[in-house]
Amino acid sequence: MSFTNRRRLLAGVFAGAVAAPAVARLGVAHAQSAWKPDKPITIYNPLAAGGVADVHLRFIGERLTRKWGQQVLVDIKAGAGATLAAAQMVNTKPDGYIIACMTINSLRYPHYQKANWHPLRDFSYITGLSEFTFGVVVKAGSPYKTMQDLIEAGKRQPDKLNYGTSGIGGTGHLLMIETEQATGARFTHIPYKGGAEWMPALLGGHIDFVPDGAQWAPFVENGQAHLLAMATEKRFGKYPDKPTLIESGINAVAVSPYGLVGPKDLPEPIIWAFHEAVTEAMAGPGHQPLLDKFIQEPWRKNPTEYRAFAEKYYVEVKPMLIKAGLAQS
User: Fold this and answer.
1) What's the mean per-residue pLDDT of the chain?
2) b/e map of 267-305 (b: 16 or more CB within 10 Å)?
3) Using one digit for the tens of pLDDT, what is the confidence trace for 92-113?
4) Whole-angstrom Cα distance, residue 300 to residue 233?
5) Residue 176: which residues within 8 A CB-CB, separation 6 or more?
6) Which residue, 24, 2, 3, is CA-closest to 302?
7) In CATH, 3-131+257-323 is 3.40.190.150
């Protein structure tokens, strides 16, 4: 199943996800969510320090600190294809004092790597945060001016050009696997822990291009990087002159949201207290400008909606991973 078809399918998941029982549960949750921490809280970040997720989590952490009067710290747990942070929840006490940011890769990883955790059994889903917007970029001055230039180079000299992403099996890697399968071009994948690592690698000439989330946006704005194409369903408003991969003949759209999870059996009052506090922080001043810098939008999902998304995506993504050669049937 292509990224495009998955995106359209997932867009419909929530039409039935917040049915009457969920709405009723939401009302009960508001009555229960009087939990308030009485000591510092730690949020594990699965991506590199200084990246988009890190900046976003620290913004939210600062707002929660103000609200609750307890320090909310962000601790880097990068590695294992951006799944290490959520994986730490397996051995974490369900008391609300340690939670994690989970990328969508945690819903893919167990399909192609042995893991001592299961994304549907071992996590409590708290709230959605945002979704990375993907595009393909090169360093300014690159000989590749269009996506077609890049594809032709990947055909003429297979595996010569290197690209960086946030990890094996991540959205950027899968995007390129689909691109290679669709075009016959071949490139060499260099995995990093996040945009704070692959962006300097691109600007330093260590890799030839990046097909990943828009940590590249400020560098496109200042002229240090050049955007070849967007991995969105239609042309992106900020870059109306840039084609999509679909327009370039590659039927792929990137899907890469992230949110907060806790250990299994996290009590409902704690789950909903976090959700409501984060929702308040995301509605406050400064939040949307931060996301705008990296051309992202809020990915607002309450606990019920977030779990519904996870359950659906975990099943639907496996055929695509099999097609990509990362998982077995």
Assistant:
1) 90
2) eebbbbbbbbbbeebbeeeebeebbeebbbeebbbbbbb
3) 999 999 999 999 999 999 999 9
4) 20
5) 163, 165, 187, 189, 211
6) 24
7) yes
pTM: 0.85
Span(s) in the chain for CATH 3.40.190.150: 3-131+257-323
Three-state secondary-structure class, residue 291: helix
Look up the CATH architecture of domain 134-230: 3-Layer(aba) Sandwich (3.40)
Nearest to 151 by CA among 161, 141, 140: 161
As annotated, the residues of the chain forming the CATH 3.40.190.10 domain(s) are 134-230
Listed in sequence order, the residues at least 6 apart from 114 whose beta carbon sits closer than 8 Å to its beta carbon are none
Examine the pLDDT at 310 and tell me if it is beyond 70: yes
Determine the Cα angle at 243 with ends 242 and 247, to 5°: 175
Report the chain's terminal Cα–Cα distance, integer Å. 14
Cβ atoms of residues 227 and 136 within 8 Å: yes
The angle that helices 303-316 and 3-11 make with each other, rounded to 10 degrees, is 150
Least confident of 3-7, 119-123, 171-175, 310-314: 3-7
Alpha-carbon distance of 39 to 224, in angstroms, equals: 44
Report the DSSP beta bridge partners of residue 92. Answer: none
Residue 11 scores a pLDDT above 90: no
Q: Order the strands of the 225-230 sheet from edge to edge.
A: 188-191, 162-165, 209-213, 134-139, 225-230
**Angstrom distances, CA of residue 28 to CA of 16, 91, 95, 305:** 19, 29, 20, 16
- The string of DSSP codes covering 155-171 is HHSTTTSEEEESSTTSH
